[in-house]
Amino acid sequence: MDKMDQSKGVLVDALKAYTGLSDERIANMLDEVPIQEVCKGTVLLEQGDIPSHSYYVISGLIRQYVTDEEGKAITVDFYTEGQPINMFSFQDNEGCSRYSLVCLENCVFVDCTDVDEDSKAESPEISHMKRQMFEKQFSELQQHYTALKLKTPQERYQLLCEERPELLQRVPQIHLASYIGVTPETFSRFKKRMK
């Protein structure tokens, strides 16, 4: 089975999980689904650009970050297999993105261009699926931000180890430290203590 067939298999599983579409309808849709493969280091969105795409990650790892006024890049989140990225929730009042997105690994994803335009022609099941995925993303973001506010840095590190242990193997330590709001040196200390 080649990579594209594997990608379509993952997408079929997601469509089955989120919709009531028949196997035949899903099979017919697959040829029209815009699956993209991009290389590690590809920038999907720059802070300040106007987003025109949303994504569903089939494989790979995408980092969301913001650059502050001093030029420091602060990691906001990571998106991995099976996660949607609702770009329109990134927009400020002028429609520009508050964040940047970069691929930390080679990635395969569904590229949902002009989501608002597509929604007029899509089936109710697909609209429902998108709504469910984006509601799940919003809920996860709220939980993440609450954890950042309520927990100590050590507790945030422990939460990362418990809830997203795969990131410890896949993400450079400097980005993980930024994600939980500590310096790389503090992150190293936490890591040593946990061993």
Automatic annotation (TrEMBL):
The UniProt entry, under InterPro entries, shows: cNMP-bd_dom, cNMP-bd_dom_sf, RmlC-like_jellyroll
User: From what superkingdom does this record's organism come?
Assistant: Bacteria
Coiled-coil spans are: none
Identify the Gene3D superfamilies for this entry: Jelly Rolls
Q: Name one Pfam family in it.
A: cNMP_binding
Ranges for domain Cyclic nucleotide-binding: 17-102
Q: Where are the transmembrane segments?
A: none
What's the protein here called? Crp/Fnr family transcriptional regulator
UniProt source species: Fusibacter ferrireducens
